[in-house]
Amino acid sequence: MTSSLLSALNRSLHATVRLCSVFQPKNVCKSHVIAGGRWSTGWSTGWSRRFTNMTDTRGSPAFGKCTKGVLMAAGVFGTVAVGVCGLQQAEMATRVKKVEEVVEGDVAERCRNLMAPPITDVRVLEQRKHEMRSRMEMLIMETQADFCRALEEVDGGRFRVDRWSRQEGGGGISCVLQDSKVFEKAGVNVSVVFGHLSEEAAKQMRSRGKELKGKDGKLPFVAMGVSSVIHPKNPHIPTVHFNYRYFEVEEADGSKQWWFGGGTDLTPVYINEDDGVLFHSVLRDACDKHNPQYYPNFKKWCDRYFYIRHRNETRGIGGIFFDDLDSPSQEEAFSFVKSCAKTVVPCYLPIVRKHLTDTFTQEEKDWQQIRRGRYVEFNLVYDRGVKFGLATPGSRIESIIMSLPLTARWEYMHEPAEGTKEAEMLKVLRSPKEWI
C-alpha cells in the first residue's frame, strides 16, 4: 500500500513539474504580431514558439494564469435530429476506456503540438482530464492541428490563426488559409462556449424533439466542436466538410442531457468513381469498428440532411452524418466520434494530392462556381449549425460564415447539356448512389 501511494505521489509531482515548466517561463511574455510573419512572444520556452501566426482578441497571451471556477467549454455547432444508434458489446466500454487512458496521455505534453493553446487553461484540463468536456476539447484541438498541418504541407502556405473570446463565456480558435496556392479558402475552426441558451436556440432544440426544462427560464449549456470547410481552386479537387461536436445542457433539477453529433461529407464538382470509393471506404472502416449499422444508417442520414429542397438535389456525394448520439454509453459514443475525427486526413488528402496537377478549362471553372452557389444556398437556408450559431448571443459571425467560398456564381436558368460531365454530376446529385 505504501509503495503504491509513493508511486502515485511521484507521478503527481512529475506532472506538476511538467506543468510548471510550461506555464512559468523565466522571461516575461510580451505578445506581438510580425507583419507577414508568425506570432511571436518574449517567452524563451520551446513550447511558446510553436504557437505562431496568432492574434488574441483580448490583447494578451493566450496562455496565462490558471483560471478558477467552472471549466470553459464548448463550441457552437449544429443541433439535433432523431438519433439512429446501434448497440455494441457490453465489455467494449471497459476495453475502450483502458486504451484511451493510455493513448490520451499527459495534457501538457499533447498541447505542444496544437495550432494554439486550448480555450480552457491547460492546468484545468489536466486536473479534469477524465471529464468528457476536457477529453472532447483536447480531441477537437488535436483534430484541428492535424488537419491544418496536412493542408499546409500540400499547399505550402500557412494558416492565419485567430483566437477570439465570447463575452457570455468561452471562445474559439479560427484557422484560415485564403487565396493560397492550392486552396482558395480553407477554414478549420474550434469553439468552446458555455452560458445560457437563448430562447430562440432553446426553441430550435425543442422543435427537434429535445425536452428541456430550465430553471427560471434559463438553460445552462456547454457546447464544443471542430468544424472545417475546404474550397480548393482546382475544380477537379472536391470540397470537403467535417464537423464533430459535443453538447451538454443542465436542466432545472440539476440533471444533464448530453449528446454528440457530426459527420464528414464530400462535394466534388465532377464525378470521379475512385475518389468516391476511397472517401466512403475510409468512413465505413471507422464506423465498422464500433457498429456495422453505423455506416449505412449515417450515410443515408447524410444524404437526407445535405439535401437542397428548393433545387431537388443533394449538396454533394455525401459521407456520414449523425446527431443526438447519446448511446450505448458516453464512453462508447466518444470513442466512435474519436474514430471519425481520425479519418479527416486519410479520407481527403490522398484525393487532393491525386489531382494537384490536373489541368482545367474556363468552362470547368465556371461550373465549379455554379456548384459553389448551391453550397452557399444550402448553408444559409438549411444548415442547422449556421442557424444555431446566428441565434446564439455572442457568436463570432466571421467563424460561422467561414464555411462560404471566396467566390461563387449564379446563372439564370442554367442547365448542363445532355451527355456532358456536368450533366453526369447533376444526375448523381439528384439520385444519390451507393459508392461501396
TrEMBL record:
Coiled coil: none annotated. GO terms for biological process: protoporphyrinogen IX biosynthetic process. GO terms for cellular component: cytoplasm. InterPro entries: Coprogen_oxidase_aer, Coprogen_oxidase_aer_sf, Coprogen_oxidase_CS. It catalyses: coproporphyrinogen III + O2 + 2 H(+) = protoporphyrinogen IX + 2 CO2 + 2 H2O. Pathway: Porphyrin-containing compound metabolism; protoporphyrin-IX biosynthesis; protoporphyrinogen-IX from coproporphyrinogen-III (O2 route): step 1/1. This is Oxygen-dependent coproporphyrinogen-III oxidase, mitochondrial. It comes from Tachysurus vachellii (Darkbarbel catfish).
